[in-house]
Design goal:
This protein has 646 residues and is of the alpha+beta class. It folds into four domains: 11-187, Heat Shock Protein 90; 239-396, Ribosomal Protein S5, domain 2 (2-Layer Sandwich); 413-545 and 589-641, Rossmann fold, CATH 3.40.50; 548-581, no CATH class. Helix 2 packs antiparallel against helix 4 (122-128) and helix 9 (357-377) packs across helix 10 (379-409).
Length: 646
């Protein structure tokens, strides 16, 4: 948390750029989407305002409550949004902040040294996209309140109570507009992941998340006989605890390396820890915003890490085959790179990549000096890291040959394609689909069912290699993995090129049983670890085959879950219903498979997304890693959310 406190925060600090017009017409411009992702972004926008107060040194507690009526409350103990009349608009500053787009203290340089909500659209956009919002401000020994309907005040700001002069803060309660969002049901785990990140990144800040909804998750707390779920995020160790938490299911090589320094107003804070695995995991943050696409801060850190390890290895005559590459030194690396920048330049409204060129040099300089000093003072740890890089260097040479072999096969033409691939005739990837299926039985049925013009079928022999536990050489020499890479055409790693993708939709189609779920998880692990760009680009899907075929009189329907079957039987009431349970794709005849699972007009597909890289990495590490206890606990916790086939 930033220790230096910023200047005066009063009504004159609220600067206005433009009105609220257009937010409801184009909500995706401001919150990314109107899906589940955009819905949760509303909470982040309000929370970010409280975090700005924390980074300025004025807030120590943030509470987020999922209320029983579907609304959300965010409460903090910061200074409270100014309530005095705005010097230009002559209305309370809090009303201006809520009802006008780009109105906020972030635009007035004296108010905040560092801010996450830099576009200043946060609370006004939340108001515009909510059927109802209520704000309570504790300031000047009074409690002020105002309510809004779709961004418009229902009454003037009024005093509704008194408090101690030292008791300050802001409370925002809002109800998302169901006519805007595809869902208005908040996911506790998605919010918990983001709030945990914020707490890690702001040492000492205490954040609580409480679920008071009647159908919320399993409860851990009871009050007045009512059950509710509550989690508390509070980390005095900051990002050192963060890097340990990310590596909790992995075998680590050393205690975390930590350093922090401020240069030219930019605060750089980094925690580094290697594990025995093969995956690289660098998490970048700017003003607590998770920059999932990286940026100049991450580039600067990578350059410094490579240079400092090479310098140490050369100086101590530990490298035998020349300098290490960046890939060599990042194998098994977990790093948190957090920077606080006064005026960051993000690419895009949702702030996924930092563009400030000067930050690269600042992070690189600070990191190179800090890492070099650490290696000199801790030779035992330095040697472990160099040895890890030496192993990666050897493997890289062998993997390079395997990659080149795969790349040679991956020509866009059909000459080098896998023999078992039943390709489609259409050569334009925008129209083409690749179905990845398990076994010859399902493969044969899928080949007969498909539309040969634009649907290709790639059958796999059973369960593919678990890439979470295999080294790169073993992975790339595996026949099934090689066939996948060749068929898709993009290549992997530094050779990945999205323009060479052969199919716009890559669809995993497995049986709806335990083995099918395992194969799906193995394939998703492969894509997440080796071709994450395909998931980020929205190219990876899971097909949803039906569980039942139901005949009622002359009418035939396909049912996709046990809950849907129960609802159907309750609706028809009579019991002269013939139910066929599909145990696998191979049990369906080609016409049924086409009609239910492959026909674009009638099928159901689930698009795979990486909503949060930290959560995704944790899930794959638990499910596919070596820690049996963690995997058992994860499956036990998630069992109630799964459909079990007994």
């Amino acid at each position: 948390m930033a220790k230096e406190k910023s200047g005066k925060y009063g009504a004159e600090s609220i600067k206005v750029l433009e009105g609220l017009e257009g937010v409801r017409h184009r909500p995706a411009m401001y919150i990314g989407s109107t899906s589940k992702q955009g819905l949760h972004h509303l909470v982040y926008e309000v929370v970010d305002n409280a975090v700005d107060e924390a980074m300025a040194g004025y807030c120590t507690q943030i509470d987020v409550v999922l209320n029983a009526d579907g609304s959300v409350t965010v409460r903090d103990n910061g200074r409270g949004i100014p309530v005095e009349p705005h010097p230009v608009y002559k209305k309370p500053a809090v009303e201006i902040a809520v009802t006008r787009l780009h109105a906020g203290g972030k635009f007035e340089k004296g108010s905040y040294m560092v801010s996450g909500g830099l576009h200043g659209v946060g609370i006004s956009v939340v108001a515009a996209l909510s059927t109802h919002m209520k704000i309570r401000v504790k300031r000047n020994g009074k409690i002020y309140q105002q309510e809004y309907k779709i961004g418009k005040p229902l009454y003037d700001l009024k005093v509704v109570g008194k408090v101690d002069e030292k008791d300050t803060g802001t409370e925002v309660t809002f109800t998302p507009d169901a006519s805007i969002f595809s869902t208005t049901k908040f996911d506790f785990s998605i919010l918990a992941t983001r709030l945990r990140e914020i707490a890690f990144l702001n040492k000492g800040l205490r954040i609580t998340l409480t679920d008071e909804r009647p159908n919320g998750s399993a409860s851990v707390e009871e009050k007045n006989g009512k059950k509710k779920k509550k989690e508390v995020f509070h980390y005095d160790g900051g990002i050192v605890e963060f890097v340990k938490w990310v590596n909790q299911n992995k075998e680590t090589l050393h205690k975390p390396i930590y350093y922090t320094k401020t240069d030219s107003g930019v605060v750089v804070e980094v925690a580094v820890q290697y594990n025995t695995g093969y995956q690289e995991n660098i998490l970048g943050f700017v003003n607590t915003i998770n920059t999932i696409e990286g940026g100049t801060h991450v580039v600067g850190f990578k350059s410094a890490l490579t240079r400092s390890i090479n310098d140490y290895a050369s100086k101590n005559k530990l490298s035998k085959n020349g300098n290490f590459t960046g890939d060599d030194v990042r194998e098994g690396l977990t790093a948190i790179v957090s920077v606080k920048v006064p005026e960051p330049q993000f690419e895009g409204q949702t702030k996924t990549k930092l563009g400030n060129s000067e930050v690269k040099g600042i992070v690189e300089s600070i990191s190179y000096i800090a890492l070099s000093e650490f290696f000199e003072e801790n030779p035992a740890v330095a040697k472990k890291i160099v040895n890890k890089a030496l192993e990666a260097q050897k493997a890289r040479s062998a993997a390079k040959k395997a990659k080149e072999l795969v790349r040679r096969k991956s020509a866009f033409g059909s000459g080098g394609l896998p023999g078992k691939l039943a390709d489609c005739s259409r050569k334009h990837s925008a129209d083409a689909e690749l179905f990845i299926v398990e076994g010859d039985s399902a493969g044969g049925s899928a080949k007969q069912a498909r539309n040969k013009e634009y649907q290709a079928i790639l059958p796999l022999k059973g369960k593919i290699l678990n890439v979470e536990k295999a080294n790169p050489v073993k992975t790339l020499s595996n026949e099934e993995i090689s066939s996948l890479i060749t068929a898709i055409g993009t290549g992997i790693g530094e050779q990945f090129d999205i323009s060479k993708i052969r199919y716009s939709r890559i669809i995993i189609m497995t049986d709806a049983d335990v083995d099918g779920s395992h194969i799906t998880t193995l394939l998703l692990t492969f894509f997440f670890r080796m071709m994450p760009q395909l998931i980020e680009n929205g190219n990876v899907f899971i097909a949803v085959p039906p569980l039942y075929r139901v005949r009622h009189g002359n009418k035939v329907e396909y049912i996709y879950s046990d809950a849907e079957l129960k609802k159907y039987l309750d609706k028809v009431k009579t019991q002269n219903v013939v139910i066929q349970r599909f145990k696998g794709l191979g049990e369906m005849n080609p016409e049924q498979l086409w009609e239910t699972t492959m026909n674009p007009k009638t099928r159901v597909l689930r698009r795979i997304t990486i909503e949060d890289a930290v959560a995704a990495d944790e899930t794959f590490s638990k499910l596919m890693g070596d820690n049996v206890l963690a995997r058992r606990q994860f499956i036990s916790e998630k069992a109630q959310e799964a459909v079990v086939d007994i």
